[in-house]
Design goal:
With about 575 residues, this protein is an alpha+beta fold. Helices cover about 25% and strands about 25% of the residues. It has a 7-stranded mixed beta barrel. Strands 9-15-14-11-12 form a 5-stranded mixed sheet, with no helix packed on it. It has a 5-stranded antiparallel sheet with strand order 26-27-25-28-29. A hairpin with a 2-residue loop joins strand 7 and strand 8. The radius of gyration is 31 Å and the shape is elongated.
């Protein structure tokens, strides 16, 4: 009963049940549902015979040694039916193209479109264009006939796939499938990415007026993260001549350098994004904000869905980088450096402010690195030399000044209000990799002052997860200072501030904690941040697409509900622990 007999009929191919020659495969008129129906007539009608096409969509004219007659049974003067396309390669909705996986089998590819969140749960109506559909074909969406040039997708919800069919004279001549997301979609193509060098690629996305594409240089980003199948990507936007070009993406700043953070070690796929959002909301503005506008010490971003060379890659955190434009430190001029930006990219006594590890307190102005520090601005070049002076002097002061001098002058070297916020921030998060490493320090203008402002970076190993994604050493009840000492990650600057109570450090930290605890550090406020992104992932369907794509593929398998439940308990215990420490 489940075997089929296929043979050449008077016209086209006939497909019948092997055990019953009268049960023919049939395409129902009106509904266009394919099924098996009893047919007693000797000659199959147009609805009961099929064209055979090869992989290129060309009609096959011979089958089993028999020449096939493929012209319509009742031509009526019209042209023969075109070859059936398995899947329409491209169509647009309101002028915007979808993104689909390439290399899939017939009928297996679905185009993904971004729609506004206000559409969710409602019917979505869009003008549709499909250049590959035969002229005069009628569009059906899930079996419902559509108005000419329009498509209605009823009750748009997460994961719902709509089947589109273009029908001509009762035959489906081409088809497609569509599904929707509320997240932006980025597609990177023609990219053979490397972990060491930038390679040419093409970045595409949809804007209000249609699809836009730009040339980019791209590479894999990260260190430990490169061991995972899902990897972060760095993008440098260039014009056709290879020169830097600024673009604005997803309502963020206009820039030529963008980061796609894979978040592979985080089962929630949101910790880094939540942490940066929190820092942006709580951080005291840096000491130099009276001199500039729009200085930021946080990396803004949003969740996006990404395709790489026609393959769906899942959910990424599209984010701004920390650089001169973000921090608004003074621009270098003909006389040399003014603003400076340093990054601690490895663990060392130097990056923990405990001394120079025996190297002394000077660095070559032609070198971009010193003592596990990198200088991000100004980088040494033909035009500018690196300015290591503020960092080296602050290193020596923090490690070797006498106690009296330290207490009197520490505020001249370090932006203490921001440092108070930073320390409470990473203590709340139980950040495992951010007490010395994965930090930036900014100097606004070294000709005026060498004062350093701390800036956080790479916050995946937070909120009860280690830098490798494990929960092991991240108990919510941990004394953070003892944890850092045990791991060899203590920050000697903060330890000295506390030990000497320099510039009323202990009371400043206690008062600031109480202030934050009544607002952004409340359990409800923190959980709302996670719920916001969990809702985005669930509502858009992106969370399920991410899970299907990366389940069992290395890294941490997504588990949004499980992580939210874990975080509820972890945050409650973490806040109780800090409340006792700071007498809240």
């Amino acid at each position: 009963m489940s075997r089929w007999h296929i043979y050449a009929g008077e016209r086209g191919l006939i497909i019948c049940c092997k055990s019953s020659q009268n049960l023919l495969l049939n395409v129902r008129r009106g509904s266009y549902i394919v099924g098996t129906y009893n047919e007693l007539r000797a000659t199959a009608t147009e609805n009961e015979r099929f064209l055979l096409v090869d992989r290129k969509g060309r009609i096959v004219t011979h089958f089993g040694g028999t020449e096939l007659r493929n012209e319509p049974a009742n031509p009526g003067g019209r042209e023969p039916l075109p070859a059936v396309q398995a899947t329409l390669q491209e169509f647009t909705l309101d002028g915007r193209s979808g993104f689909r996986e390439q290399g899939r089998g017939q009928g297996g590819a679905t185009s993904l479109f971004t729609v506004d969140e206000s559409v969710w749960g409602r019917d979505y109506k869009a003008a549709i264009t499909a250049a590959g559909a035969p002229e005069g074909a009628q569009l059906y969406v899930d079996g419902e006939r559509q108005a000419r040039g329009k498509a209605r997708f009823p009750q748009v919800t997460a994961g719902r796939t709509y089947r589109l069919a273009w029908v001509l004279d009762g035959d489906t001549v081409t088809r497609a499938a569509a599904t929707f997301t509320t997240l932006p979609i980025l597609s990177l193509s023609e990219a053979r990415l490397s972990g060491t060098t930038f390679v040419d690629a093409l970045l595409s996305w949809n804007e209000e007026r249609g699809r836009r594409s730009v040339h980019v240089k791209a590479r894999w980003r990260g260190d430990y993260s490169l061991s995972h199948a899902k990897r972060s990507i760095g993008l440098k936007v260039v014009d056709e001549a290879g020169k830097k070009q600024d673009i604005a993406l997803c309502g963020l700043r206009s820039d030529n350098y963008w980061i796609l953070d894979a978040m592979a070690i985080d089962p929630a796929r949101m910790r880094n994004r939540v942490a940066q959002d929190l820092w942006q909301d709580i951080a005291t503005p840096p000491y130099y904000t009276h001199s500039v506008k729009h200085a930021r010490t946080a990396s803004r971003g949003c969740l996006v869905e990404v395709f790489l060379d026609g393959s769906y890659q899942g959910v990424y955190n599209l984010c701004e980088r920390i650089d001169r434009e973000q921090t608004q430190v003074a621009k270098a001029d003909a006389n040399g450096a003014r603003g400076c930006l340093y990054k601690a990219d490895h663990w060392s006594r130097s990056t923990r402010w405990g001394g120079s590890d025996g190297r002394g307190y000077s660095a070559s102005p032609t070198s971009g690195s010193w003592g596990h520090w990198q200088i991000k601005y100004p980088e040494p070049s033909r035009k500018h030399q690196a300015e290591w002076g503020p960092l080296c002097r602050a290193e020596q002061f923090a490690a070797e000044s006498d106690d009296t001098t330290f207490c009197r002058e520490v505020g001249d070297y370090f932006d203490l209000p921001v440092l108070v916020d930073y320390w409470l921030f990473i203590e709340l998060l139980h950040a495992t990799d951010n007490s010395g490493k994965n930090m930036y320090w900014a100097v606004y203008d070294c000709r005026q002052s060498g004062k350093l402002t701390p800036i956080p970076w790479d916050l995946d190993g937070t909120f009860g997860r280690n830098w490798d994604g494990s929960r092991g050493p991240c108990a919510a009840t941990n004394n953070y200072d003892n944890y850092l000492r045990g791991e060899g990650k203590q920050n000697y600057l903060v330890e000295r501030l506390y030990r000497l109570d320099a510039q009323d450090w202990r009371e400043r930290v206690r008062r600031r904690y109480a202030e934050l605890r009544r607002g952004p550090f409340s359990a409800d406020a923190l959980l709302q941040r996670f719920e916001h992104y969990r809702s985005q992932l669930e509502k858009s369907g992106a969370g399920e697409r991410e899970r299907r794509r990366w389940d069992g593929q290395g890294g941490r398998t997504p588990d949004y509900a499980g992580e939210i439940k874990y975080l509820e308990g972890w945050l409650k215990e973490r806040l109780a622990t800090l409340d006792r420490k700071y007498d809240f």
